[in-house]
Amino acid sequence: MEPALLPRAKFDALVQTLAQAGYRVFGPVPRAGAVVFDEIASADELPRGYKSEQVPGRYRLTHDGGERLFDFVHGHESLKRFTFAAEERLWSVSHDGQVAFHAHLPEGRPTAVIGARACDIAGMRVQDRTFIAGRHASFTDPYFESRRRSIFIVAVNCSVCTSTCFCASQGAGPRVTEAFDIALTELDDAFLLETGSEAGEALAAQLPLEPAREEHHQQAAQQIARVAQSQTRRIDNEGIYELLFDNLDHPRWDDVAARCLSCANCVMVCPTCFCHRENEVPDMGGTSSDHVRQWDACFTMEHGSTHGARLRPQVKQRYRQWLTHKLGSWWKQFDVSGCVGCGRCITWCPTGIDLTEEAAALRAEPGLKA
Predict the structure, then answer these.
(1) Which helix (H) or strand (E) holds 36?
(2) How many Å apart are CA 65 and CA 313, to the nearest integer?
(3) For the segment 287-329, what is each residue's pLDDT rounded down to a tens digit?
(4) What range does the domain containing 349 cover?
(5) Is residue 293 part of a domain?
(6) Are residues 114 and 141 in the same domain?
(7) Backbone phi, psi, residue 112, to 5°
């Protein structure tokens, strides 16, 4: 269908129509000083009038009393929490006369997420290459696939950015271009609505839409272009694999290790990271056990352990593993960067480490040896 206008005063119709279609509806809500995704029953719960200030190591929400619902930059959460659960039971085993295994695939209601940004969707598409069989993966993870197939995405094109955003240099935003059902661009009094799937078209047909004029298209395009032009950070991906792997002994790794706490905040907020651990959790009676998967990080000492030996005991080695994989070897594995330029790792790093700065430092003086 042709792009149309959803008046701001009628935005709640989108929330209610999704709920009536059987979806659990999630949207961004302000909570504890940040914007998080939570289940919503009304558009009144969205962060009307909120803005976010983000710099390396700092995040702050402010409220200006305005009417815009999405005039903020994302918080620490991305779509990853909806497709790749932070913790889930994969299967259980019981012994009651005989051993029996039981699979535990997700069986919840379909989920609709309002407010996904272009970088979030780009991150989800990177994880698609990891978990769903195709050109880059030989095995489909049924847990990821089940959630991925049942998610309805209402994306929002960015109208603002912060100092930590650099999605434009990664080709991941600020405009949503794929893998959405409905995409919105927030204008002064309405939302320019586009559909990206049959499910999106079917739902949009039930909304109180109005015709969009050329001026609305121009305003939306200019708004998105301003966001891209205002971004000051970037990553130069030209020859970045060779740059990183030709400089594994560069003194810059020691410099960043002196600042890194190895806390793994960057991995937890990253929309593309997929490291995980799997554990057996036995019951107290010793007759059954759950096999549980949890998010993990290459920054933890245990993640790099094999047969009791710690492969990367130094912080320098763990940070180097993370950065060379994300910016370098990801290209070899998946034909894309592992970084979508969302800037979350910069904002939520307690010491404000900036991966764009680290990559630029290696490029400025490549070939140096420790």
Answers:
(1) strand 34-39
(2) 50
(3) 899 999 999 999 987 877 677 777 778 999 999 999 999 999 9
(4) 240-276+298-364
(5) no
(6) yes
(7) -110, 130
Is 62 inside a domain boundary?
yes
Provide the 8-state DSSP code for 243. H
- Give the CA count within 13 Å in the CB-facing half-sphere of 82: 28
Q: Is 257 exposed, middle or buried (0-12, 13-18, 19+ CB in 10 A)?
A: middle
Instruction: Determine how many CB atoms are found less than 10 A away from the CB of residue 98.
Output: 6
Residue 203 three-state SS: helix
User: What does each C-alpha distance from 117 to 39, 81, 178, 274, 347 come to in angstroms?
Assistant: 17, 14, 11, 19, 17
Model confidence pLDDT, tens digit, residues 32-89: 999 999 999 999 999 999 999 999 999 999 999 899 999 999 999 999 999 999 999 9
Q: Are residues 258 and 122 in the same domain?
A: no
State if pTM tops 0.85.
yes
Which tokens in the block code for residue 57? 């190591």
Q: Is residue 81 part of a domain?
A: yes
d(Cα 155, Cα 177) in Å, to the nearest integer?
Answer: 10
Both tokens of residue 85?
Answer: 């659960």
